[in-house]
Amino acid sequence: MSDVQVVDAERAGGFPCVVAALDVGGTKIAGALVRYAASDTAPVVEARRAVPTKAARGGAAVLETLSALAGELVAAGATDGQAVVGVGVGTAGRVDARTGSIAYANEIMPGWTGQPVAAHLREVLGLPVAVLNDVQAHALGEARWGAAQGADTCLMVAAGTGLGGAIIAHGRVLRGAHGFAGEVGHTLSPDAAGVRCVCGGTSHLESVASGSGIEERYRAAGGEALSGAEIAERAAAGDELARQVIELAGSSLGEAIAGWASMLDPELVVLAGSVLNAGPLWRDALHEGYARQTPETLRSLPLVDAQLKGDAPLIGAAENLLDFLGARD
Amino acid sequence: MSDVQVVDAERAGGFPCVVAALDVGGTKIAGALVRYAASDTAPVVEARRAVPTKAARGGAAVLETLSALAGELVAAGATDGQAVVGVGVGTAGRVDARTGSIAYANEIMPGWTGQPVAAHLREVLGLPVAVLNDVQAHALGEARWGAAQGADTCLMVAAGTGLGGAIIAHGRVLRGAHGFAGEVGHTLSPDAAGVRCVCGGTSHLESVASGSGIEERYRAAGGEALSGAEIAERAAAGDELARQVIELAGSSLGEAIAGWASMLDPELVVLAGSVLNAGPLWRDALHEGYARQTPETLRSLPLVDAQLKGDAPLIGAAENLLDFLGARD
């Protein structure tokens, strides 16, 4: 399926160039100019800014906020004397790869579902626009200029409140048929046997390995209602129940990574998200779980942490726009 | 990682053309000419032939047999007045995507590991050669001219003696970092909890959903030592133990497909392999398992049977050669 988000836009390519990049989350919308001196030099992220998403005001209002911020960036680029070649957006929710509209967003962003992000920005700004999911953007940023630089095949696992991910295949982010590719959280896990998942299925990895899964497992086992970070602190301090929950989160994820690695044969796996801060108990369990389930041939697969932090989704959104323009073909 | 199997070969492309295609299995080596009238018309498979692999004679002897058969096909093509543009090979075992050598083959083909298939055929025949795993070849054939024609993202699941698979991403077969991509059999399955897998891990899907898994589960539950086909017959005839084993094979595979679909967001899933003949009990359990674990958005994902039968790996091997030559760029 070809990407026809902006079917009649001029598909200009070439370097040097500047892209307006935006990252839409539930609490804030971040934006920046991503400046490329050449195709093979690391982009410079500049003119950073951020505004509150005010998600409760609804999807149409969020789209106006996004549009205004994108307009500011385009204007800032023009002031610098180098016209912005297009707008790259990474956003929470599932993005229709064909239209650049929001196919689905959860209750954190009411009314974001259905918003025609690419079409609206293009109409307002008169520039090519490419939109993808924020985790996919993060992975693409890391694959081009971060922890997975130059990787042709790569899996990113994002363990935060939920458990998401993204796949790089043939050097490009895998969007899938509907733009949903990379949702690793609904992989079956024997460690989650019988636990109901938010998606409606049962025994899914997200129920034990995500931040919210850690919190729920701790409560279900008789612990208090604490945040994942607090549970990790207690585990480090010797709380036996907390230790069990944190270690299960690590080992179940490590075991699942072995299965995904066997399936995708990636050059490396990039780990991202707040759960990475759960400490050495979690990390040791992750590596032990991986080693337990992976075949000999994949034992030395690098499992590395993401490098680009908050810039990754912006750089990835910019790279997706460059792919869309054919600038990297 | 770029494919450098034949770094200095002339990368001729263009249609019409004829490719010599070969499919190396543990019992026979099949070969044919795959003839293309144009880039967008279905290829014609002709001049079919097959010889015994005689795997016990060792890898070097198998390579000579393969080389002789490939030479016959090239000569046959020349006789017809249209020179063969190159040789496409699909083979049992894992193929190093960079060199076209056999990275690993199991005991069914002793000494096949390490054989420099691409380099040897190229030296003998003086033609470009591209080699890939036989399941990957099968999937590529189906994706280009069979059940998944035109698919950009597709998963093929091959349930035979073992449980394998292949992934089509961005319209091309995903080789992965070492050429191993698509090995879905080592996905964790709650239904296989605690069962030791041949790979060294535990709780892997292959132990319950493959043909050998069906046979072992039946024996482990107190049944006789029967073939998978015999167990399926008994299940259909009302044998309760056989029914349980066959239904578990179907439902565990269906549940796993839901996880893979969530991860890859394919346009469809293609099913192949002898286990597809296990009958309606197996098939109903497969679809029920899938429905139980898949999110609403993927409920209507087509799960379809492969169409091209024995021609699929040959057509896929030919398509891989065309990709290698850049003929489909």
Describe this entry's structure for a reader.
Chains A, B: Belongs to the ROK (NagC/XylR) family. Chains A, B: InterPro entries: ATPase_NBD, ROK. Chains A, B: This is ROK family protein. 2 copies of one chain form a homodimer. Chain A is of the alpha/beta class and about 325 residues long. Chain A has 2 domains: about 140 residues, Nucleotidyltransferase, domain 5, CATH 3.30.420.40; about 150 residues, ATPase, nucleotide binding domain (Nucleotidyltransferase, domain 5, 2-Layer Sandwich), CATH 3.30.420. The first copy, chain A, is built from 9 helices and 12 strands. In chain A, the strands form 3 sheets. In chain A, strands 3-2-1-4-7 form a 5-stranded mixed β-sheet, with helices on both faces. Chain A has a 5-stranded mixed β-sheet with strand order 10-9-8-11-12, with helices on both faces. In chain A, strands 5-6 form a two-stranded antiparallel ribbon. In chain A, strand 9 and strand 10 form a beta hairpin. In chain A, helix 3 packs across helix 9 and helix 6 crosses helix 7. The longest helix of chain A has 25 residues. The two termini of chain A are about 15 Å apart. The interface between A and B is large, with 53 and 53 residues.
User: Compute the gyration radius of chain A: what is it?
Assistant: 20 Å
**The biggest beta sheet of chain A, please?**
5 strands, mixed
Domain module tally of chain A: 2
Walk across the major sheet of chain A and give the strand order.
Answer: 3-2-1-4-7
Question: Total helix count of chain A?
Answer: 9
Helix proportion range of chain A:
25-40%
The dominant shape of chain A is: globular
Number of strands of chain A: 12
- Model regions low in confidence, pLDDT < 50 over at least 5 residues of chain A: 1-11
Tell me which oligomeric state these chains represent: homodimer
Strand fraction of chain A: 15-25%
Order of helices and strands of chain A: EEEHEEEHEHEEEHHHHEHEH
The largest interface is:
A-B, 53 and 53 residues
State the CATH architecture of the largest domain in chain A. Answer: 2-Layer Sandwich
Q: Give the mean pLDDT of chain A.
A: 94
